[in-house]
Amino acid sequence: MRDIADFPTDGVTFRDITPLLGDAAAMASAVNALVDQFAGVAVDRVVGVEARGFIFGAAVAYRAGAGFVPVRKAGKLPWAVVREEYALEYGTDKLEIHRDAIHPGERILIVDDVLATGGTAAATAKLVETLGGVVVGLAFLLEIEALAGRGKLGERSVKSLLAY
Asked: For position 61, which CATH number holds?
């Protein structure tokens, strides 16, 4: 991974995972480790958050034998949605999920690449719970501890492969 200063806005350091994605062994190791963190936990569906969460989420869903559900930025899904607004390090945004993507009582693992301020992850968990899903965990490739995002996720099980 590499850090890119002042992207997407001044003062923000972007954590670029594309070098990891381009290395087959590193990518396989990351996916396997994400799955292993929740070994023994029943998962019906994996929710991946746009956009890099799609990459890991789909692979984790495949390995876990679960369905995959995309959570997208507003206006990207073609059917009836539930929407949640959240705060970023540099503003606000909105996430959406199809209304029929999750059924009451389904056990959901949320997967994304980076846990930073926790706004995206908290909004995703709220979308899942609004539809009646049970968040059994949140899995991240990287956690930026100084931004304290874990604190926005309450008592949910949160696991990160790397933290700094």
From this structure: 3.40.50.2020
